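Tutorial handout. Part one gives the primary structure; part two gives the three-dimensional structure as tokens.
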Amino acid sequence: MTGTEGTADLDRRLADALERLGHGMRSLAQRTARGHGLSPLQQQAVLALFRQPEVRREVGALALEFDVTTPTMSDAVAALERKELVSRSPGKDGRRRLLTLTPQGEEVARGLSTWDDPLTAALAGLPVADRATTLQSLLDVIAGLQRAGVVSVMRTCPACRFFGRDEHPDPIAPHFCHLLRAPLPLTALRTDCPEYEPATR
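Part two.
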């Protein structure tokens, strides 16, 4: 086996491992959503509004976030309204309808927030350095997929215009955030930053 063939095989096995992980996470999400009387998309919307309400308060923003059409997301939000988990209110311009979780919706969101505990428990068995390296590698892959147009909005450090890769000499904190004006340890790389702005490159 040549080096190129070995690398191609490694890449295929990595892709297969990620596919299996994704399948497991989808199954877990479906079970959790069903337990709360929600569809997986409704669950995603509730959690998104719970975690980052300031950047996801419109149907269109949620649709872009989860790679679905606006009508599909609108149907999901309408169902959440019927379940009294989400309410809509006029925006400052009077035209946009801003989404907010109701008190009942916030309670459901808190119950949903631990849906991925089995994964975090499995990750906790790895050394911190391995977890940090894995995080950076996965964020780099996500950024590449975003540049290729495969995924849409991902508020991650490597895809952000404020991210300075390898601009700091400390191997523990090799990157730099130009917004925070501070070094970024690998363990501090963000997967969902509210200050994210897309890189132009």
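Part three, for discussion. Residues 126-188 form one domain. The CA atoms of residues 162 and 178 lie 5 Å apart.
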